[in-house]
Amino acid sequence: MGVRGLQGFVGSTCPHICTVVNFKELAEHHRSKYPGCTPTIVVDAMCCLRYWYTPESWICGGQWREYFSALRDFVKTFTAVGIKLIFFFDGMVEQDKRDEWVKRRLKNNREISRIFHYIKSHKEQPGRNMFFIPSGLAVFTRFALKTLGQETLCSLQEADYEVASYGLQHNCLGILGEDTDYLIYDTCPYFSISELCLESLDTVMLCREKLCESLGLHVADLPLLACLLGNDIIPEGMFESFRYKCLSSYTSVKENFDKKGNIILAVSDHISKVLHLYQGERKLEELLPLGPNKALFYKGMASYLLPGQKSPWFFQKPKGVITLDKQVISMSSDPESREEVPMCSDPESKQEVHMCSDPESRQ
To answer: Which segment of the chain is annotated as a signal peptide (predicted)?
Structure first.
């Protein structure tokens, strides 16, 4: 999930962007800054299942009472310090991400096969290193949280987009999850669920502003970086040759960094030193080897634009519309300027694809 290689890069190359914070202190500061506003955390529930589900005999599934107790303790701990939780669950898989979804399901099948092979061979439960989430746990978790009186929402499109959008529009305290896409969205702060200590309510906040400072970029450049590195929409191999070209011309390769870390630094350096020179003057397709993938690339970029946001990387034309040869794409997330436009260059085709980031209008 998220941007290829970014999680490892943050942990090994840029650990300073990770700051230990305390939710109780953050909530008190939020209340003093916004009187009358309840501090709210948007929880990406799909990222938190592994944190909640920790039975010792996990291979058998079940342990419902213990699991329900863990959820109750989680909710009580945040409620005790006056923090409201909003839980988001995955709804549908978007058409553009189904190929990636299929790859993950096939990978899951291979992991499950390894688990069964281990059980047959050793006649015992494998270690935690082979842990796998039981089927249907997300559905039952949603019902459990409803029983505990919590507000749960099921996404109508990509869940991380709706989580980021909700956090921004409702002035939330932050997002709790484990997905590097939350570093790319220009939204409220992003907190790690894997680093959460429930007893003390300490966790790690990943700061996108510090990430930009380390890479020499602006926050508005992060969607471009994410697409060039590869994400759930842009296949990793689409810009592979471009990334290695950036790496070959990058003069500050660090010997102590891993290969992916150096690639991220090289691509960021290319954006800041080459692409910035022509920003607003030339179209991105004139600066990047997009080839026949222009529409997909721009859709990947637009997927990071939350309602009301615009990207400086889109060549400015009236009403935020870009013309790519015979393709026309609406790149503005301004609800007043959104129109459905044809994406196909075949004049006989009537298929229309909407490119806006309004969750209510995506169908």
So the answer is: none
Residues 127 and 20 in one domain: yes
Domain that holds residue 255: 216-303
Same domain for 77 and 226? no
**Token pair belonging to 297:** 């690339």
- Verify that 166 and 202 share a domain, yes or no: yes
Read off the pLDDT of residues 166-180 as tens digits, 9 standing for 90 and up. Answer: 999 999 999 999 999
Residues in the chain: 363
Q: What is the pLDDT of residues 188-246, one digit of tens each?
A: 999 999 999 999 999 999 999 999 999 999 999 999 999 999 988 888 889 999 999 99
Domain count, the chain: 2
Q: Chain centroid to CA 119: how far?
A: 35
Measured distance CA(249)–CA(260) in Å, rounded: 15
Q: In this structure, what is the dihedral angle of CA atoms 82, 88, 89, 95, given to the nearest 10 degrees?
A: -170
Q: Yes or no: say if 164 and 219 are a contact pair by the CB < 8 Å rule.
A: no
